[in-house]
Amino acid sequence: MEKNFDYDDISDSLIISVKQQDEKVHGSAEIGNLVLDFTNNGKIVNVEFSNISKFLEMININPNILRELTEVNLIVQRQKEAISLFAILKTQHLQQPIPLATFPVSKNLTFSV
Fold first, then answer.
1. Would you place residue 105 in the very low, low, confident or very high pLDDT band (cuts 50, 70, 90)?
2. pTM, to two decimals
3. Are 84 and 36 in contact (CB under 8 A)?
4. Which sign does the torsion angle of CA 21, 68, 85, 52 carry?
5. Three state DSSP letters for the chain
6. How far, CA to CA in Å, does 1 sit from each of 5, 28, 71?
7. Cα 99 from chain centroid?
8. From its phi and psi, is residue 67 left (phi > 0), alpha (psi between -120 and 50) or beta?
9. 113 pLDDT tier (thresholds 50, 70, 90)
């Protein structure tokens, strides 16, 4: 299985990609510390989370987990008028779900799961 994430400790950014080879990024949106890339039909395919170590510390997760990652899963959940993003950080000995963001979605800006 090909690695779908990259942690850059210099910029303290975690990039998660669920983009398929035949999908093209159509646009991006910046929401706080997140940059979301999406396709023409609104599917979120890449997420970049800046200052991830500080965020993990704020939610009482040891940021050293970032250096031990073996897998990262991105979960996109749609509620009535909001999108919630979660990541499952996996190491050899640990699986840690973390909430990334929840944000409202207008009729002009919709994302698919």
1. confident
2. 0.85
3. no
4. negative
5. CCCCEEEECCCCEEEEECCCCCCCCCEEEEECCEEEEECCCCEEEEEEEECHHHHHHHCCCCHHHHHHCCEEEEEEEECCCEEEEEEEEECCCCEEEEEEEEEECCCCCCCEC
6. 12, 26, 10
7. 9
8. alpha
9. very low
